[in-house]
Amino acid sequence: MKFQINPELFKEQVLERLPAIPKVVHEAWKLTEKKDVSPAKISEVIGKDMTLSAKVLRLVNSPFYGFPNRIGSLKHAIVLLGIDVIRGLLISTVVFGEITPEIEALWYHACDCATTAGIVAKVLNIKEKDEMTVAGLLHDMGKVVIKNYFPEFAAKIEAVKRQRHCTDYEAEMEVLGLAHDTINEWMVERWHFPLVLKEPLVYHHRVKRAKHYPILAAVIELADMLVHIYRLKKGNVIPTIESEVCQYLNLTPEVLENIITEMDRTLYTSDWGEV
Ligand SMILES: [Fe+2]
Ligand SMILES: [Fe+2]
Questions:
Q1: What total of structural domains would you count in the chain?
Q2: pLDDT of 125-135, one tens digit each?
Q3: Could you give the CA distance from residue 67 to residue 54 in angstroms, rounded to a whole number?
Q4: Could you say which ligand is closest to the alpha carbon of residue 238?
């Protein structure tokens, strides 16, 4: 059953089927490459697409970021979070689009991971905390692509998971010969993500391969595993965690306890239906 598909051909099909990134996101991104461009100018460009802007503001005001006061404008959000984060949030609205029953579980998992990755980064004093939140939101975007655009493969992956009692990753490898992290890689290249987001999205199951941000990849791998444990249901399999993750993050029992306490406090009351 292994390597049934041709990876080059599959990559072409994935890239063909990806949703188009709205023009305003491209425009805003081009603007940021210029020197001395103001948040007001960037927000003016993104603001041309009111539906997108409203979705991003909803995400900014969700429990992921925990801002005590409501952020009312895109300009304020860009000042607080930076354009890389806002761009990642814009792309998440494109990747997830309509939350259909097929991808609902992935959306809740993404929200849990976004929150938890932010908490891990905060407890560990990692300066890219806001980037980690958006990376948590997007870390399994390759799975969304499989579910939305390759339902026949999604069904096979589910069947393998049930038969073998294995993780998503193992089942994807079995059916596709590659996993969602490789699809993430194709997506971040197509959409020109900055390295600070690219590496955690591509290497959150293979942290040693990250050349620039292995610690950030480790944050996502840890957050993902903790969320799987927190939401464990009978029959599900918890992903394993690479030994390097604990080394990169200098995890001690005390640190882990702080993360879990904060995670429980936040996730216990979160309702992602409202995001
Ligand atoms: Fe993953
Ligand atoms: Fe995940």
A1: 2
A2: 999 999 999 99
A3: 17
A4: 2
